[in-house]
Amino acid sequence: MIDYKLHIPGPVNVSEETYHAMCTPVMGHRSTDFVDLYQSCQPNLQKLFQTKDPVFLSTSSAWGVMEGALRNLCRKKVLCCMCGAFSDKWIDVAKRAGLQADPLQVEWGQHIDPDDLKTQLASGDYDVVTLVHNETSCGMMNPLKEIMDVLREFPDVISIIDTVSSFSVVPIPKDDWGIDVILTGSQKALAMPPGLALFTVSARAFQRAEQTEGRGYYFDFLEFRSNHAKGMTPSTPVIPLIHALNYTLNKIFSEGVENRHQRHSRLNQLVHKWAEGHGFELLPQQQFASKSLTCLKNNLHIDLAGFVKTLRESKKIAIDGGYGKIKGKTFRVSNMGDETDKSIGHLLSSMDEVLEQFLPA
Amino acid sequence: MIDYKLHIPGPVNVSEETYHAMCTPVMGHRSTDFVDLYQSCQPNLQKLFQTKDPVFLSTSSAWGVMEGALRNLCRKKVLCCMCGAFSDKWIDVAKRAGLQADPLQVEWGQHIDPDDLKTQLASGDYDVVTLVHNETSCGMMNPLKEIMDVLREFPDVISIIDTVSSFSVVPIPKDDWGIDVILTGSQKALAMPPGLALFTVSARAFQRAEQTEGRGYYFDFLEFRSNHAKGMTPSTPVIPLIHALNYTLNKIFSEGVENRHQRHSRLNQLVHKWAEGHGFELLPQQQFASKSLTCLKNNLHIDLAGFVKTLRESKKIAIDGGYGKIKGKTFRVSNMGDETDKSIGHLLSSMDEVLEQFLPA
Questions:
Q1: What is the pTM of this model?
Q2: CATH architecture of B5-11+256-356
């Protein structure tokens, strides 16, 4: 049993109210009671995804949908925009699914340049692009609007955008920007436990899927669509997380989406100011820094593992000591979910106190 | 919010203690706290699966693993044993995954005959066989021991056995019988909410997977194996259900597995006796009747939809009015999970009272 609060970049802290909602009794997933639950989530989901397209619920992590989307949509070749651990991995997943894939690679912490994307797409080789909007491993948020401006110039290219750690943190006007597929997960800014992925698919992406062989069953977009029409999911869904989702959506709209975005932005700035005050540098350039989490370089050369461990043990707060090849060289602090000025204030003052022990005397 | 108790054949009723376990706080899935949770489940899982092979946890419904297993293991052609809604569907899933597949089809409610299987396998055409041990749609349990006796004669044929609604109800000695892959789900006899699939893979099935292209990522058996070695899952797992699993396993071994099997058998017999007393006939032959649920023909020609509805509304008990093409012609009553002599007694006396209104005067 853990006795510390999560400020790692997912899973984040889950409220007691969310756990309580998860314990609403399960029902048969082909019953009218399930249809009621599913359909009561849908209008709020569409508002939150800023789309008229249906929003689907997948019992999986986001990776399932990231792989499934490629099997549904790629007939020629996928261009994978790569700028961190998760976007780098996507090209590997594409190849394992037997697909042709090329990289558009930048250094971890750098953003994808819309002009580079345009140049590579001009080859005409690609029918799908994958992009991780917010690279959680680097705390870097790609310039999605400018990237979508480029993608709209290529009407045969389908866009699959991973918004796992940016969804509900910043506005992502799906329909206005012409995004084809947006996918996200339950355990980041939505502040639910992991186990549920959410995604939405444009009409032209459905047209592509209709012509694609080997989509399989579990992640078949057309199965999701036909079951959605009945208020159901293709396979037995993770009902407790759908109860939690219903609760979470109501909470989000009771706060107001704009207020939610502003709160995340404000709390993120508090972490930035803390970093600046101590002389820690951001990994990404300031203008591409994530609003969901802060990824800081260990430019003060502190014993990072010791700092993270002491914070967890003495202050009961978990932050992250870096991911993959930048583990130990960076650390990450999440402000996603239900955080408040007070809770982030407590986090930062706790970090202050512990940091003192790790700075040169 | 539902106000009735589930006696449908899954999801079944979930206890308050299980919900409570689900609310144990989530942790990072790459943390030592998660590794502790994962590894504390493993010995009990291996005992319950009667295997020395690792037992994997998939954040999906069983269908994900049913499709994934085929992508991992079929290089030539799969023979799908078909005897009800779920086993019939498996061949369709195989074809959608781009695989060659043939049916070994019997009528719904009939069992798969080991001799027929032997004849078809003797062609040498197949490298994988799929079998649903307990066809939930028909309440029919296949003679798995005799089927495995046949399969062991074909060392190049890998067996994938769906035990979704028989797992932990009857003994299935995986290693002794030489089963390659067993898979099950959380929401049947394990009496947890849906969202977690469990499966185990033999050494020779791993050898096959190592040689198979296009396994993908999300259900790649080799990914499960390499992460298992670290006490982790390939992708972010549905942590609340793993907490619930840990609780459930301890409860199962505190009752004793043999006692659990006997309890399911005894409670199942109570339902059979109730049926006999009213003149309802079993859909399957008596010797192939499931121990998990009872599927009865509507040979008394009652208003089945009315009976099911009245039972739910007046007695707050949900049973099932038939699945797929036998909806309305059959009804199903589950005795899976945490049921007791007392709870099944209450179910049957409630059914007695309601049935009176539906019998001819």
A1: 0.98
A2: Alpha-Beta Complex (3.90)
